Amino acid sequence: MPADTTLIILGASGDLTSRLLLPALGQLLTREPNRSVRLHGAGMEDWTDEKWRDTVRASFATMGAEEAFDKVAETAYSQADITKASDLQELLDAAEGRPALYFAVPPAVAEKACVALADVTIPEGTILALEKPFGTDEASAHALNQQVAKLVPENQVFRIDHFLGRSTVLNLLGVRFANRLIESVWSADDIAAITVDFPEKLGLEGRAGYYDHAGALVDMIQSHLLQVMAFVTMEPPSSLDQLDLRDATSAVLRATHVWGDDPVKSSRRARYTEGTIGDRHFTSYADEPGVDPARQTETLAEMTVEVRTARWQGVPIVLRSGKALGPDAGDPAVTVTFQPVRHLPDGFVGESDPSVLTFSLGPDTMSLGLNVNGADDPLELERVTLAADLGEGGLKAYGEVLSGILDGDAMLAVRGDAAEQCWRIVQPVIDAWRAGQVPLDEYPAGTAGPASWGL
């Protein structure tokens, strides 16, 4: 029986494929064994079918999905230059069912391939899955959107943001919309501030070729954290259908601006110097192989934005991410700080800080900090934390991504206009940093950031 979908991985010999895509596919096929999918790898390297199959088998094994390999055991590999229309045509002609082209290649190569696809006969229903970053600024993202729009309809374009495949993002929607206690206070009337923070213990990890040109602002805030913020702050959609959900998140991004329209006062940047995390020693970022210190690339970025709508006007939303940060930087999380009570009756003493709701982005947990009466003295307030373990979800992030691609459901994919808006939002900060208007601070690897930041 022909497969429903042929997943064609372009850049099949790369790290993204073996480390993330194939393990996720193995997990997905183990969990949903009735899926009908054919797998085809393509890349510049002169691989044999057997070498490709060994790669797939080994990647599946990392997830304990050895038995799922039988579902794709006939997978083949093609040596192909995906910037050539003729090579792309051969790949599409060999597909069974609906073709899904997954561009596991650098963005510049994906853009050239999209140009080449204009000269290809594309089967009806073909899905294009493009990794971020999508473009290098708002203008280039717009141009790429226009190019892709000539190829397939928007609902067949999957701009991949694996952060949206995280179970925590989906859990956040459930907690917010399925609980009147939460839903009714989700606005500036009751919320004082929101922080989306993603500290990483990892350093450059050999990615200087990309990272030294991107930095933390583009690599994380522009590419991922703004999307997470949009899920936190969007208006309630009528359904979780891709159209309703993406309409809601795109509307939020259109209303998002740098806090006070002042990118200098509303942003900070820094890069790590020599230090240690556990038993691992880090050299200074400026001394890493492939880094040009004169480029002044930041490894820690922070910016404050505001969603200018009736629901959120006046609430500062801090987006922050950095590399080589120590345990004191905390875990990746969305933190919602509520307004203080309007009046605390005289006579109470002790803890009275505002309530804080935290969604950790790994491990997936939710906690709510509240003030309660003390056990010994009922007039003395103390802080307690109510916590829930939300689990890891049935699928890893890329498993959720591949599930959507194979189902043709773009609910967790980034829409074209949203990709452009993310560039618009960060551009004032990029311009201010390039002009040297915001100092490049430093922090030793293994710390929570520059001491002057008070983190």
Characterization of the model:
The protein is α/β, with parallel strands linked by helices and 455 residues long. The mean pLDDT is 93. It has helices at residues 15-31, 49-61, 85-93, 107-116, 138-149, 167-177, 180-183, 208-233, 242-254, 397-407, 416-434, and strands spanning 5-10, 37-43, 76-79, 98-103, 127-131, 157-160, 191-199, 256-258, 267-273, 275-277, 280-282, 300-307, 317-322, 333-338, 349-350, 356-361, 364-373, 380-389, 440-444. Helices cover 32% and strands 24% of the residues. Strands 7, 8, 9, 12, 13, 14, 15, 16, 17, 18 and 19 form an 11-stranded mixed beta sheet that branches. A 6-stranded parallel beta sheet has the order 3-2-1-4-5-6, with helices on one face. Strands 10-11 form a two-stranded antiparallel sheet. The protein contains 11 helices and 19 strands. Helix 5 links the parallel strand 5 and strand 6. The termini are far apart.
